[in-house]
Every structure is written in C-alpha cells, then in structure tokens.
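Next comes this protein:
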Amino acid sequence: MKKRAVLIVFFLFVAGIMFAQEDSNTEGSGSAVKYIAAALAVGVACIGGGLAVGQIGAAAMGAMSENAELSGKAMPFVGLAEGICLWGFLVGLLILIL
C-alpha cells in the first residue's frame, strides 16, 4: 500500500513538472498531451492488470494444491484481469485516433 501511494505521488509530481511551463507554440502542445494520456492509460491499466493476475494466480495455485478440480474455475478470473489491459490499450488507441 505504501508503494502505491509513493507511485501515485510520483506521477502527480511528474505531471506537475511537465505542465509547469507553457510552450510558445500552441499548435503542437495538444498532440503531446494526447501521447502522454495514451501512455498513462495503457501503463496504468497494464500495471493494474498485472497486479490482479499475480494475486489471482497465487490464490489459484493455493486452491489447486488442496483440490485439483478447481483449476478450471480460476481461469475466467485470470481472463477478466487480463481484459483490463486490453481495455487500457483500446482507450489509449481511441485517445490517439480521436
């Protein structure tokens, strides 16, 4: 929990530094924000999905060690967690296209 708080504060600090100075060329600043937003959408979604898959995988291995029949019941939950990464990618793609 403490690492997540440090990571969030770090991202907020970096975002504050990036937008602290105004650019004299106002035409190109919109595209730079789009790339940053798309990168954040994909990055945060993949980090969240990876953490979820790690926790689900550990719980599934523990359950399978007690009862081998539970292996098929854990797979849909892993798929749902991986879907988070896919949605983050789609949001990032839509940010870049639109």
